Amino acid sequence: MTLPGSLDEAVAALAAMPAAVPVAGGTDLMAAVNSGLLRPAGLVGLGRISEIRGWQYQDGHALLGAGLTHARMGRPDFAALIPALAAAARAAGPPQIRNAGTLGGNIASAAPTGDALPVLAALEASLVIAGPGGGRREIPVGHLLAGYEMLGPGELIGYVRVPLLHAPQTFLKATGRTGPGRASASVAVVLDPARRGVRCAVGAVAPMPLRPLDAERWVASLIDWDGERTLAPEACAAFGEYVAAACIPDPAPAPDGGEPGTLPPAALHLRRTVATLARRALGRALA
Ligand SMILES: Cc1cc2nc3c(=O)[nH]c(=O)nc-3n(C[C@H](O)[C@H](O)[C@H](O)COP(=O)(O)OP(=O)(O)OC[C@H]3O[C@@H](n4cnc5c(N)ncnc54)[C@H](O)[C@@H]3O)c2cc1C
After folding, report:
1. Which CATH code fits 51-163?
2. Per the CB 3.0–4.6 Å rule, which of 104, 179, 251, 259 could disulfide with 157?
3. What residues does each domain of the chain span?
4. What is the pLDDT of residues 198-223, one digit of tens each?
């Protein structure tokens, strides 16, 4: 295994060994190797690259290193900065996983159950990708998760750019269906007072986080942004139902104009879970 000391050295090592794969905490990658799903010809370890293990401030944003571990993001100083990402980090697996697993690995794995992903989607974060020859390009995180854009050969996620909103934000998850600790559904809610917006993303119910944009606009229009920023419990509950129906819609009517089908019980249960999470997440953000 090669252990470069900088992002550019890591990119160069990948260029020199095109069949090698990068490894950060190894919590996803080594599970794939151990189960025989992956036989990498070589490994480029990212664990010694100190420049991506912290964060810095830049123009109202935080530039988070891809090598930040879940354990580091869960600490109070980080939670004061980006509360929803800290909550997601604290919810990500058992302590051994949180100590080793990284933000960059969570994004690159792009598992539907990745806890950081709905938070980054709600924050409209972007990724700074490091490429050969010291090149850097920036893409919205949603583009990578949706597959509109991919990491090219030898490219690495270097940093994640997150706006600092200085307003409440929450992340909640329900576990069970997908294995111990993994989300069966998760919801991130972020208030953006400067844009008078509420942004929400739902994780684990689809291959990538879903943004219920109509529900976001509707609930933002109910909030008195110059006043107390509270909502009645009924409005939070209606938001939860709106979000859940957008993410897990009723089956379309039959093409012959017949009766629309009904959701199977498991989907109905998931929809109720999403509605509850979204109601609570909004309620806590506005509390
Ligand atoms: C028992 C267990 C429980 C878990 N529970 C949770 C959970 O509750 N929530 C959750 O979200 N996740 C969970 N995970 C998944 C995993 O821990 C996280 O996704 C973690 O963040 C992965 O980070 P890593 O550094 O270990 O990635 P690695 O395993 O090192 O890498 C994962 C993938 O990302 C690539 N990669 C890594 N870093 C970069 C980079 N900077 N640029 C480009 N590609 C990169 C690697 O090549 C590899 O393909 C769990 C895993 C296990 C084994």
Report:
1. 3.30.465.10
2. 104
3. 51-163, 169-286
4. 999 999 999 999 999 999 999 999 99
